């Protein structure tokens, strides 16, 4: 029996709560014959015995046991025709029963989380932002698309220079000094479709129609600007025919570079000076500042185990994401092969984690749900004096809770610690993880590329898994990490524009 079917069977009890009420305990009881004491507590629990003559059930209570008119052929077959309350009794150890029921409820609650019906998915095309909402004032209330906008919220989100600092864009208004019953005193709409308001506290505010329309957008639409969502291109081994790339020159467009990363999950940057790593470091700093970790900031290393991590060896590495042991894994990672002498091998492996997740979703929804809900812990403990662990476990597939869209893949079997399930249930996770691992290793999903001096690889560590083949000789690699929030911020500024991003802050 598959793990998913086993779970569904266990969940029958928890999903059908009536089956566990005191009057319907039949699925969990065995009623043998024999001498025993009738527990006084058990006497209040009716026990059902399936009838041999039909679909009805015989209900056994003290009343049935004492009064001859309740004796039936079915009852006599179970307890014997000579049975009386003083001579024989029905075995019903309620202490053991209570323990069993507690275990069933506990397991049901726990495993119900694994197979909850959230519609997790990989969103490749964000919804278009809809505009043109009807805006009007009805009996002193602002209505946008038929939705009433609370006066307190509207006053709190006034964007004038008295309420929001012009340079820092931080709030200046003391929110809780606003009267709870604040109301609109006067309002007008001008030709620029701007609402001008005079409040009961004397303050004046202006709100554009775009700003007001955004207040009633659903979570998926609000996420487009906040997360910098765009149309994604899922890929497999065929990406080798035309990988995304850009040239490093005085006209290098950070916008084009980040757009390719956002769409494909990676980009190659050509014509970067080497073997001096300074040009690579400068390239990364054009995006954002380089993240410091226990490995340092910008790294420049060879396979000498200078840090206790398999990345500092020459062995093969399976597809994985970095920093699963951090609560906030790095957003971008970069590799630049500065030199490789006296040896061969070391081809780089890239796998689109979102594509693999999408395939798993199509093939086995139960496995996808397991990897989306069961938390897994990780650690980095190789260096003396260090054992880094996130503040909690995280699932392999993390989703935006407001939209259910896949947000991040965390997969590194080398750094994995415990699985957040009772030991008797961990097989469920292993079954799902095995299917995900098989898809990661499918040839059609693996893109192999030999890194070359002068060509920098930058990839999205939340989406693209990386690995390498083993190698001989001496390799020198440089690179670094960039925080997710920092690179997405830069992407939004370049692709969406500062004005639009700031306008969406109140509603996003």
Topology at a glance:
Blueprint: H1 3-15, E1 47-50, E2 57-60, H2 62-66, H3 73-79, H4 94-114, E3 135-138, E4 141-144, E5 147-149, H5 151-156, E6 184-189, E7 194-199, E8 204-208, H6 209-214, H7 219-227, E9 245-247, H8 254-264, E10 266-270, H9 278-285, E11 299-301, E12 317-320, E13 332-341, E14 348-352, H10 353-363, H11 365-373, E15 376-378, E16 397-399, E17 406-409, E18 416-419, H12 426-440, E19 447-449, E20 456-460, E21 464-468, E22 474-482, H13 484-495, H14 498-503
Parallel strand pairs: 9-10
Antiparallel strand pairs: 1-2, 3-4, 4-5, 6-7, 7-8, 10-20, 11-22, 12-21, 13-20, 13-22, 14-19, 14-21, 15-18, 16-17
Helix pairs in contact: 1-4, 8-13, 10-11, 10-12, 11-12
Description:
The chain is an alpha+beta fold and 508 residues long. The protein folds into three domains: 3-114, no CATH class; 135-216, NE0471 N-terminal domain-like (2-Layer Sandwich); 237-500, Double-stranded beta-helix (4-Layer Sandwich), CATH 3.60.130. The chain has 14 helices and 22 strands. It has helices spanning 3-15, 62-66, 73-79, 94-114, 151-156, 209-214, 219-227, 254-264, 278-285, 353-363, 365-373, 426-440, 484-495, 498-503; strands spanning 47-50, 57-60, 135-138, 141-144, 147-149, 184-189, 194-199, 204-208, 245-247, 266-270, 299-301, 317-320, 332-341, 348-352, 376-378, 397-399, 406-409, 416-419, 447-449, 456-460, 464-468, 474-482. The strands form seven sheets. Strands 9-10-20-13-22-11 form a six-stranded mixed sheet. Helix 8 (254-264) packs across helix 13 (484-495), helix 10 packs across helix 12 and helix 11 crosses helix 12 (426-440). It is flat.
């Amino acid at each position: 029996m598959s793990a998913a079917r086993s779970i569904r069977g266990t969940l029958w009890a928890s999903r059908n709560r009536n089956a566990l009420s005191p009057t319907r305990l039949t699925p969990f009881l065995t009623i043998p014959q024999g001498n025993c004491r009738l527990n006084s507590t058990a006497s209040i629990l009716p026990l059902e015995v399936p009838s041999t003559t039909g679909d009805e059930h015989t209900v056994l209570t003290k009343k049935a046991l004492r009064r001859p008119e309740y004796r039936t052929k079915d009852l006599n077959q179970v307890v014997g025709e000579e049975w009386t309350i003083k001579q024989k009794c029905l075995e019903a150890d309620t202490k053991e029963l209570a323990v069993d029921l507690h275990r069933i409820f506990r397991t049901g609650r726990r495993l119900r989380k694994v197979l909850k019906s959230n519609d997790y998915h990989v969103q490749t095309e964000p919804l278009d932002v809809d505009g043109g909402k009807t805006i009007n004032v009805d009996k002193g209330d602002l209505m946008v698309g038929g939705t009433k906008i609370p006066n307190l919220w509207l006053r709190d989100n006034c964007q004038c220079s008295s309420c929001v600092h012009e340079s820092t864009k931080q709030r200046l208004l003391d929110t809780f000094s606003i009267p709870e019953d604040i109301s609109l005193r006067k309002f007008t709409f001008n030709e620029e479709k701007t609402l001008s308001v005079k409040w009961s506290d004397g303050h004046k505010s202006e709100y554009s129609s775009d700003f007001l329309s955004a207040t009633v957008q659903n979570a998926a639409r609000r996420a487009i600007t906040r997360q910098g969502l765009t149309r994604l291109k899922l890929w497999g081994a065929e990406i080798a025919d035309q990988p995304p790339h850009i040239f490093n020159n005085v006209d290098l467009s950070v916008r084009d570079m980040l757009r390719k990363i956002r769409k494909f999950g990676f980009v190659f940057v050509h014509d970067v000076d080497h073997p001096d790593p300074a040009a690579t470091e400068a390239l990364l700093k054009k995006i954002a500042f380089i993240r410091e970790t226990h490995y340092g900031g910008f790294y420049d290393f060879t396979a000498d185990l200078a840090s206790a991590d398999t990345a500092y060896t020459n062995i093969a590495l399976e597809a994985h994401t970095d920093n699963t042991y951090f609560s906030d894994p790095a957003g971008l990672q970069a590799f630049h092969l500065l030199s490789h002498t006296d040896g061969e091998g070391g081809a780089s492996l890239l796998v689109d984690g979102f594509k693999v997740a999408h395939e798993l979703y199509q093939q086995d929804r139960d496995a996808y749900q397991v990897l989306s809900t069961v938390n897994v812990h990780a650690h980095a403990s190789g260096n003396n004096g260090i054992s880094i662990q996130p503040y909690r476990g995280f699932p392999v597939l993390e989703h935006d809770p407001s939209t259910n869209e896949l947000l991040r893949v965390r997969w590194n079997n080398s750094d994995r610690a415990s699985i957040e399930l009772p030991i008797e249930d961990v097989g469920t996770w292993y079954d799902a993880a095995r299917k995900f691992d098989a898809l990661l290793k499918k040839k059609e999903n693996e893109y192999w590329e030999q890194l070359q001096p002068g060509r920098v690889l930058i990839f999205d560590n939340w989406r693209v898994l990386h690995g390498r083949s083993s190698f001989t000789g001496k390799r020198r690699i440089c690179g670094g990490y960039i925080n997710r929030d920092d690179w997405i911020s830069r992407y939004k500024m370049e692709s969406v524009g500062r004005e639009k991003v700031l306008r969406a802050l109140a509603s996003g």
